[in-house]
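Subject: design request, 565 residues
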């Protein structure tokens, strides 16, 4: 119950933040700038040194090195999160005197491409976090990853609110920082639980320290925001750095201990977090030094790196969903970019045409793009598949190729052995069983590498459904005695002659729709081939009986033996 609530809470939060992010990039910015860059004066509460004044601060006569006094709550608003047109009153201490200065915030010069990059950063975390929560929430590692992604995306959304509206005073910055702390702690949990839970090394200690360190960081947040205590800020930053280092160390240990086949994907996961958290740490340093926070955009490495590794190396069970998301995002990008380029060209070439002509040209471009959506989608789909899913498509093609060759195999035992080998190699099935129907209606496991595969009666739930619908069947409800997770019917002349049963892949993920269809075709063709081999064998026996001189009683006895086989 709690897991289900957790899942839906993450999905709702991610959806709400995505809606805000989209609306945020559409609405004009209301962010303001007083031209103040302030550094707290150690040992003097409410005192700050002015650094590189600009805009309203410079026009009011403030100089670098001046000391100003501001209440703690006002510092957060005036130094970082002002709205255009707001006023800020402060006392300036210079040459032993104090004078009162009131500044009016001017619109902050935020480039549109920076706003777009901030939106991409938020959306990438929120979208991937929502996909993981929606499609892969069965184990603790998945829940930790989804929590980390959504928490980071939510924190960036709060940052967007503050930077663009200045709303929230000191409360929103506290919530914003708390989201970063919670997300960083969740990252450590994910790193110590993926790909397998660590219970016997230093990763256990790193995981157990997350809760007390997270509590310390969150307790220090109000002191940092309201009293501007240097030690509180240092403690919070130290906790965030601990989470980043612990995550990278844990993933590094997992990479070092991974099997050779798992190392490429583990390397991608490790590199994504290492680059992302390195940018995050440098960004914090830039903010403390009063410089522009550009390095924090390195966090993009985490969602983009994970998206690539999910799709290419199939780390989690959402590769197909990510594939569709990447395809539609690519189609949207091509269409929007084409329209913007065409509009810019029209504005440059047809600058003297009438408004009506210009509108007609734009409508013409929109109409052409509308008709071109289908070929654009097909082209982008091929490119994405070639880049991200080439290995999977080659494996799928190998399954379909063997399905076409199955009727050429002349020995039933050899055909079944080859079928199990192909499914284990090209479908990555962790276990395979081939069931065939006997004369008494019992389905026997004639080939199996499952532990404890047993005969199953014809009235088994899974067999009943396959006999009725002749479609692959997922077996997650536990009603069937067949082993495995999905069964593919072997239908011959309208009857269920057997089934190919597969367990989940070795990676733990489910089969994509195109893979399921390939295995379905293979099971059908193998069923037909086995039936044809039986008929051929029966004909040969009957031909031998017909050729050999024998009494009617001998013939009946030999036919009886053939029927009993």
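Subject: RE: design request

Done. Sequence follows.
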């Amino acid at each position: 119950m709690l897991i289900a609530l957790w899942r839906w809470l993450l999905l709702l939060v991610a959806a709400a933040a995505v809606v805000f992010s989209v609306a945020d990039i559409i609405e004009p910015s209301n962010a303001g700038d007083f031209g103040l860059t302030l550094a707290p004066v150690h040992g003097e509460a409410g005192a700050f040194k002015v650094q590189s004044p600009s805009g309203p601060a410079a026009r009011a006569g403030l100089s670098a090195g001046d000391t100003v006094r501001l209440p703690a709550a006002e510092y957060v608003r005036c130094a970082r999160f002002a709205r255009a047109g707001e006023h800020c009153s402060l006392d300036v201490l210079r040459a032993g005197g104090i004078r009162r200065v009131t500044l009016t915030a001017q619109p902050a010069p935020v480039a549109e491409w920076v706003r777009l990059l901030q939106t991409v950063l938020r959306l990438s975390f929120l979208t991937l976090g929502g996909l993981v929560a929606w499609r892969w929430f069965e184990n603790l590692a998945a829940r930790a990853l989804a929590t980390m992604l959504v928490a980071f995306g939510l924190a960036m959304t709060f940052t967007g609110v503050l930077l663009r509206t200045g709303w929230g005073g000191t409360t929103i910055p506290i919530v914003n920082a708390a989201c970063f702390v919670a997300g960083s702690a969740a990252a450590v949990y994910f790193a110590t639980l993926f790909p397998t839970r660590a219970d016997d090394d230093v990763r256990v200690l790193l995981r157990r320290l997350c809760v007390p360190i997270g509590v310390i960081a969150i307790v220090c947040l109000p002191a940092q925001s309201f009293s501007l205590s240097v030690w509180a800020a240092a403690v919070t930053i130290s906790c965030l750095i601990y989470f980043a280092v612990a995550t990278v160390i844990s993933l590094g240990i997992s990479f070092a201990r991974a099997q050779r086949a798992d190392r490429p994907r583990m390397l991608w996961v490790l590199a994504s977090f290492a680059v992302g958290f390195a940018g995050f740490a440098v960004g914090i340093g830039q903010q403390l030094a009063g410089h522009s926070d550009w390095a924090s955009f390195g966090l993009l490495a985490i969602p983009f790196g994970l998206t690539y590794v999910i799709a290419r190396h199939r780390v989690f069970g959402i590769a197909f969903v990510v594939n569709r998301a990447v395809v539609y995002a690519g189609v949207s990008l091509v269409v929007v970019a084409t329209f913007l380029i065409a509009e810019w060209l029209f504005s440059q070439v047809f600058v003297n045409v009438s408004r009506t002509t210009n509108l007609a040209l734009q409508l013409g471009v929109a109409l052409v793009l509308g008709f071109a959506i289908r070929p654009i989608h097909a082209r982008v789909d091929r490119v994405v598949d070639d880049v991200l899913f080439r290995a999977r498509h080659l494996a799928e093609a190998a399954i379909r190729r063997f399905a076409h060759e199955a009727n050429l195999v002349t020995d039933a035992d050899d055909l079944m052995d080859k079928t199990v080998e192909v499914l284990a190699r090209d479908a990555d099935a962790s276990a395979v069983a081939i069931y065939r129907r006997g004369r008494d209606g019992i389905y026997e496991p004639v080939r199996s590498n499952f532990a404890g595969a047993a005969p199953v009666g014809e009235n088994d739930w899974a067999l009943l459904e396959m006999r009725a619908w002749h479609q692959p069947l997922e077996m997650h409800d536990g009603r069937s005695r067949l082993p495995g997770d999905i069964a593919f019917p072997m239908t011959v002349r309208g009857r269920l002659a057997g089934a190919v049963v597969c367990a989940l892949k070795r990676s733990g993920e489910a089969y994509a729709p195109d893979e399921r269809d390939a295995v379905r075709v293979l099971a059908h063709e193998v069923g037909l081939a086995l039936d044809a081999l039986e008929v051929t064998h029966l004909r040969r026996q009957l031909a031998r009986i017909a050729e050999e001189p024998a009494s009617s009683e001998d013939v009946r006895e030999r036919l009886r033996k053939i029927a009993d086989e």
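The chain has a mean pLDDT of 79.
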